[in-house]
Request: fold
Amino acid sequence: QVQLVESGGGLVQAGDSLRLSCAASGRTTFSIYRVGWFRQAPGKERDYVAQISWNGGNTYYTDSVKGRFTISRDNAKNTVYLQMSSLKPEDTAVYYCAASAGLGTSERRATSDYNHWGQGTQVTVSS
Reply:
């Protein structure tokens, strides 16, 4: 079992940057987990943002954040990061990290592909 805690959200202006962190804990080996970031705006579904494979060798992004967001991980620190740059008002949402055990490297975009979730961190981008 793994517990996930997100941090780093906040209120920023359009064009600013933020780095979100997802810290994992629990009696497990975090390095075998793929990790995804999702976001949910008020009244909307939870949408996929990015994913990183267990060893960091494969990363994937939804089209709207490509070139602006970077996902990375430090398995020694049991932490995954989402560096967000050139933020836009439409990036405003609660951001969640999610994890599932697996050594595969294929992209997993569905919420049902992940069975561990954090509580979320709010990101608000003003225009």
